[in-house]
Design goal:
The structure holds two protein chains of two kinds. Chain A is built from five helices and 16 strands. By secondary structure, chain A is an alpha+beta fold. The longest helix of chain A is centred in the middle third of the chain and has 19 residues, at 112-130. Chain B is 34% helix and 28% strand. Chain B contains three helices and six strands. The chains are: A alpha+beta, B alpha+beta.
Chain lengths: 279, 105
């Protein structure tokens, strides 16, 4: 199977099987999914239940074709571009997504993780065009402000989310969604869950601060200079495409972000007292 | 001594941040932070000005350094970044149109 050779014949306009649709809105970007498999549509509705919005006009449409024939998903995903069309390829799925027509096609098994990966990639590409990004980070909303906690696996993202006090709303414990808003940024909840195994709340808030997590013996916040912040943050940005133009856009996004948002190292010991510093 | 001409690769993104020049290779996403001298050479690397002229004009006149030492350091710097695809070098003047045919990757 190759991504380039995939021709979605059933979407050629000829009469075909009934299509079931569902719109999933993450980060204020509604994407309509179409599938002829009602069970798969039901799976999407369950998995993204807090993020469904049937009344939103879709910004993008993605048509999903389910196949029983696929390779294992243990390969790295390949993301490349031909003109305005992005090609996404991993053993368990192949997808095309045209940024101009805003229409995509996915050929995949009925595995929900395949679609989850496609959704993350599409959002990362959309955000790159808008000066935003997805970042390996937990995030939360407190007192009307968004806070992001970035770190590698084991740094404490899930721990921090688990320790969140009642007045904090967890947006995610795994993948945070950052969008430009005027001269600032906004943090959105995502359905992308980590070890917490709980989807985030579908709410958003202006971003107040981004913390780089580090476990230590005493809770403290150490502000970072933009340059150090940029170096650290680049390591946590979720980006799949090795396309030069896109890499430049992500670089510009990060450089602008660190110039406008307060970024600090949050050294913490894993108990609820750390939240006393987050306000 | 053969002249050396240096041009900035098109496959990089750069930004001045906190007074320092930050460069990222768009090919492998490697991040480089240039010191003041490196930034001067980076900004002057137009492919038309020889490295010796860049060193004379942008390094020796701005910093207290012996010309031979400055040129040797500049060559080392340029070669190191050329190995990462950040610069392209040639013994002839280069334009951005020449970039794919230049002598070093």
């Amino acid at each position: 199977m190759t991504g380039a050779g995939y021709a979605p014949a059933r979407y050629s306009g000829q009469p075909g099987p009934q299509l079931f649709t569902v719109t999933v809105e993450i980060g204020g970007t509604p994407i309509l999914f179409e599938t002829s498999d009602p069970d798969f549509r039901a799976m999407i509705e369950r998995r993204y239940s807090g993020f469904l919005n049937s009344s939103a006009a879709p910004a993008y449409r993605i048509k999903i074709q389910i196949t029983s024939c696929a390779e294992p998903s243990d390969k790295d995903v390949q993301v490349s571009r031909r003109g305005s069309v992005w090609l996404l390829d991993r053993g368990d799925f192949q997808a095309q997504w045209d940024q101009q027509s805003r229409i995509g096609h996915v050929l995949q098994t009925a595995n929900p993780y395949s679609l989850d990966t496609v959704i993350r990639i599409v959002h990362s590409l959309v955000l790159a065009e808008q000066g935003g990004f997805l970042v390996h980070a937990a995030s939360a909303l407190r007192a009307g402000h968004g806070f992001i906690f970035a770190g590698v696996s084991g740094a404490g993202k899930t721990t921090l989310a688990r320790l969140a006090p009642p007045d904090a709303i967890v947006l995610t414990d795994e993948i945070s969604y950052v969008r430009r808003q005027g001269n600032g940024y906004r943090a959105y909840g995502t359905p992308f869950a980590g070890e917490l195994a709980r989807v985030g709340e579908n709410v958003s808030a202006p971003l107040a601060e981004l913390y780089l997590l580090e476990q230590g013996k005493k809770n403290r916040i150490e502000p970072l200079e933009p340059l150090a912040a940029a170096r650290a943050l680049m390591r946590h940005i979720l980006f799949f495409a090795r396309d030069e133009e896109m890499v430049k856009k992500v670089f510009d996004s990060v450089m602008t972000f660190v110039s406008r948002v307060r970024i600090s190292r949050l050294v913490f010991t894993p108990d609820e007292r750390v939240w006393g510093l987050i306000e | 001594m053969n002249e050396k001409y240096v041009i900035r690769s098109k496959a990089v993104a750069s930004r001045i941040l906190g007074g320092e020049m930050v460069i990222m290779s768009a090919v492998d996403s490697t991040l480089f932070i240039l010191n003041e001298v490196g930034a001067q050479i980076w900004l002057a690397a137009d492919g038309q000005t020889s490295l010796s002229e860049i060193v004379k004009r942008n390094v020796c006149e701005e910093f207290e350094v012996h010309p031979d030492v400055a040129y040797s350091d500049a060559q080392e710097f340029v070669d190191a970044l050329a190995n990462h695809g950040i610069f392209q070098t040639s013994e002839r003047p280069l334009s951005c149109l020449d970039q794919s045919a230049s002598e070093t990757p």
